[in-house]
Write a structure and sequence with these properties.
alpha/beta, 13 strands, globular
């Protein structure tokens, strides 16, 4: 009998299926308990949920769920552009910013050319999945002190380099690259190389770097943002990219029709305008992150000081601690898949959730 791998694209053998944070529903089934009893701190979700204005808009949009959505996302693109000081032609919507990563693969990577993609060690694992699925070679530069090394990325450039992925802040380490380092880096990248700044956690920053300036200057820079994190719309899968109009035009040619549904567009449009919800979310995250980092320092548990809505913590055996916390109805994210078996990533929840997590970790440490 013919193996399916004789028919499938050979590079797919090298892909490990992406493992998302463990869902609440699955954990509840396994433990035989009410889902409401579980604390999920695994996927960097908004602990306050979506904006009430977004919920209202989505409920209203359901009345027209029998109609196809606006394929161009006209009103949402216009609102994003106005907010960012760019033109609507600079914006493309995706089914989550992850889909835009796929657009980039379709647009700029080819196995026959032996294209190369550069990212940092410990960067978001999906970059490697995208490169491999399009037959490109993934080059991961070392990450000393869990910081992204832009100088090493420049040294890794070759004539075959097509894309450079720079998540800022980085997931899962939570570290941030400064404006000065970014300016120096972009000024030295050849124009034929596309630089992708993945800014999923941008809105959590007090003094965020300005990467949109490079788009306005006409450089081949692509900025990714999402409604999944601070806006609390992860379940809708909606994100976007900002780039030069000619780059956006190329990406549109890779996009499936109606890739962003009408409910998501309505929710995102309302969420974008709810500044009060964003401010309250940021306040809760700032307070919770500070609390967690203070507690880890007091407990003498190594961690990487972060700036997003999660903290990366060295617990000795990430998978073992994940399992022990799971039995206490708390879900965190083990990082073995990132080559960090000693570490877990802990999302910032409400203060009540954070206190329960710390209490559980202290109990586990005493038991040892």
């Amino acid at each position: 009998m013919t193996s399916i791998w004789e028919l499938a694209n050979p590079q797919l053998r090298d892909i490990t299926v992406y493992e998302a944070g463990k869902p609440i529903e699955e954990t509840a089934r396994e433990l035989g308990i009410d889902p409401g009893a579980i604390i999920k701190l695994a996927s960097n979700e908004n602990p306050l949920g979506p904006s009430p204005k977004a919920v209202h808009a989505m409920r209203a949009a359901l009345e027209n769920a029998h109609l196809y959505p606006d394929g161009s996302g006209f009103y949402l693109c216009k609102a994003i552009a106005a907010r960012l000081g760019v033109a609507p032609e600079n914006v493309i919507l995706g089914n989550g910013s992850n889909e835009v990563l796929e657009f980039l693969g379709h647009a700029f990577l080819g196995a026959e050319r032996q294209d190369e993609v550069i990212a940092s060690e410990y960067a978001f694992v999906v970059y490697k999945l995208i490169a491999t699925s399009f037959g490109a070679r993934m080059i991961e530069v070392p990450s000393p002190g869990y910081e992204q090394d832009l100088e090493a990325m420049l040294e890794a450039l070759t004539p075959k380099t097509r894309l450079i992925f720079i998540p800022n802040p980085n997931n899962p380490t939570g570290t941030l690259i400064s404006q000065r380092a970014i300016d120096s880096f972009v000024s030295r990248v050849p124009q034929q190389v596309m630089v992708v700044f993945d800014e999923a956690y941008f809105e959590f920053l007090d003094d965020p770097p300005d990467t949109l300036q490079f788009v306005r200057e006409g450089r081949n820079v692509i900025v990714l943002r999402t409604f999944s994190k601070i806006h609390g719309l992860a379940g809708l899968r909606i994100g976007y990219a900002v780039a030069q109009p000619d780059v956006i035009d190329v990406l549109h040619r890779t996009r499936q029709p109606f890739n962003v549904n009408s409910i998501a567009q309505a929710g995102a449009l309302a969420a974008l305008e709810d500044d009060a919800h964003l401010r309250e979310t940021k306040r809760v995250i700032d307070e919770g992150r500070a609390y967690l980092q203070e507690q880890f320092a007091e407990m003498k548990v190594p961690f990487v000081p972060g700036v997003a809505n999660f903290v990366m913590v060295n617990v000795g055996d990430g998978c073992a601690v994940f399992e022990k916390l799971l039995r206490r109805k708390i879900i965190v994210r083990p990082l073995k898949g990132y080559g960090l078996p000693e570490w877990v990533r802990i999302s910032v929840g409400t203060m009540e959730q954070s206190r329960e997590l710390i209490a559980a970790l202290k109990d586990m440490m005493r038991a040892q």
